[in-house]
Amino acid sequence: MKIELNKALSDHVAWYESNEEKGKQLFLENKQYDGISIGNIDLVDVGVLGCKFKNSSFEKIDFSNGNFGHTQFIKSIFENIDFIKVDMDYLRVVGTTFDKCNFFRTSLMYVDFIDSFFYEINLSNVHLLNVNMTESAFENVDFSESRLKNIDFSQVTLKNCCFKGTKFSNIMNVDKAKIESIIIENDMILYDVEAKKWLEKQAMEHA
Question: Which residues pair with 201 in a beta bridge?
């Protein structure tokens, strides 16, 4: 399976670098991978649909403009990844770490982020719709200019997260979240109780 995947990755790089004249675009559907490691590669425009990755690691990869619909990542690690303008609707993430990743203008609708850790993440200008963030932690995450609708904050931890220009609609269970600090308009920093009050106010005003 890994040999087959490595060949598919090489073919995709050739396809992209030759302007589609050589190789073959990567398209994976309903595949399962356990314990794989991929790094230092440009994988723009890949299609990864309905796949499941477990105990895997991804580092220094450009996945921009790809499609990861209905895919699952379980107990995996992502570091220095570009997910710019990627379709990640119906994504399921459990026990996974994202470190220094860019989700700018990514579509994240009907997504599960469960028991996962997000550190130094760009989630600006993103549409998050019907997202379950239960027991996940977000530290140094930029949500500015994004749209958050039907979001479950149960047991979520927020630390130094930016919500400048963020649009809220029906965010739930803010009272069950641990909010250490957030950044709002004019670079104002709110801590603990004041931070939670601010988010609760957004939840009430935009229910």
Answer: none
pTM value > 0.85: yes
Residue-wise pLDDT for 44-53, tens only, equals 999 999 999 9
Pinpoint the alpha helices (H) of the chain.
2-17, 192-205
Instruction: Say if CB 163 and CB 148 are below 8 A apart.
Output: no
Instruction: Report which secondary-structure segment, H or E, holds 25.
Output: none
Q: Which segments within the chain are labelled E, that is strand?
A: 27-29, 32-34, 37-42, 47-49, 52-54, 57-62, 72-74, 77-82, 92-94, 97-99, 107-114, 117-122, 127-132, 137-142, 147-152, 157-162, 167-172, 178-183, 189-191
| φ, ψ at 46 (rounded to 5°) | -80, 155
What share of the chain has pLDDT > 90, as a percent?
95
3-state SS class at 6 = helix
